[in-house]
Amino acid sequence: MLLETAAAPPARRGLSVRTRGLVHVYRGEGRDVAALAGVDLSVRAGEMVALLGPSGAGKSTLLSLLAGLFRPTAGSVLVGDLDLTKAAQPELDRLHASGVSLMLQGAARNLLPFLTAEENIAFAQHAARRAAGGDAHLPGAPELLGTVGLADVGREPLSSFTPGQLQLVTLAVVLATAPGLLLADEPTSRLDHGARELVLAALARVNQQLGTTVVLVTHDADVARWVPRTVTIRDGRIGGEGRAGEEYAVVTADGFLPLPGHALELLAPGTLVRFELEDGVYHLRVEADGEQTGKQDGVDES
Ligand SMILES: Nc1ncnc2c1ncn2[C@@H]1O[C@H](COP(=O)(O)OP(=O)(O)OP(=O)(O)O)[C@@H](O)[C@H]1O
């Protein structure tokens, strides 16, 4: 099979994402689970962001809320101008038909195995055309398959595809409705190194060529090579951000500053700290038994 790229489908404006004070509690019998405990996340239109973090941190819950699959316990989610927490069902239906695409974990959950790649794309476009009253200008299957690097295999049976190629077909299918926001849950899980690189490269190409906003969840630490911004979710909150390989702590909307993982090990709960500004540089000073123990860290004021 050939792996090659063709002319990209026409760009469509990406959708911005903004959450404020996002809280989600799963209500269970006798036990409630707080999956998200106040997430303030802003993603610009056309940006590509990876959500990282340990298992159970709340990444998939956050992705589902961005997709509008269910409503949060508290807080707001804006996709473009639409507040998903207040939107009526027809508005959410329209958003799902053409504005936001969700790539579920595992190609099998996104594809109909008895159809070819082209037929899977046509199937995905059918609902979008109906929602738009037949007026939707959607990209053709050859264009889409070309964009993900799978030109010329649109009519071959999916049974002859490798796991990496199936994931690329999945990407073409979720792009079939020309979404402004693409949400991908673990798009590289269970793929070998070479296939992971191809899928991440295809996602980055989609983001750059089509302008689609991309938010993906991953355990893949290598993802930072392909994604300019990573956001680490820890215990249902934003625990930090990575930009171009640099790690940052992020001040929350209500003024809290979660410590980065390595500092957590050094600073026990209850530790008293002082911020001091010296020559344009912030210093974090730790107090022990009423005494100053010295400079722990320095941060540029800017
Ligand atoms: N449907 C559900 N009902 C009850 N609890 C849930 C449900 N889905 C997730 N949880 C719980 O919510 C918390 C966050 O789960 P979530 O799947 O969002 O985390 P995650 O970071 O995506 O984890 P993983 O990387 O393992 O997929 C966990 O404690 C999980 O057990």
From TrEMBL:
Domain named ABC transporter: which ranges?
Answer: 17-260
Keyword Ribonucleoprotein in record: no
UniProt xrefs under SMART domains: AAA (SM00382)
Q: Which UniProt keywords apply?
A: ATP-binding, Nucleotide-binding
Any one annotated GO CC term: plasma membrane
Which Pfam families does this chain map to?
ABC_tran
Q: Name one GO molecular function term.
A: ATP hydrolysis activity
Tell me what this protein is called: ATP-binding cassette domain-containing protein
Species this protein is from: Nocardioides anomalus
Q: What is the lineage of its organism?
A: Bacteria, Bacillati, Actinomycetota, Actinomycetes, Propionibacteriales
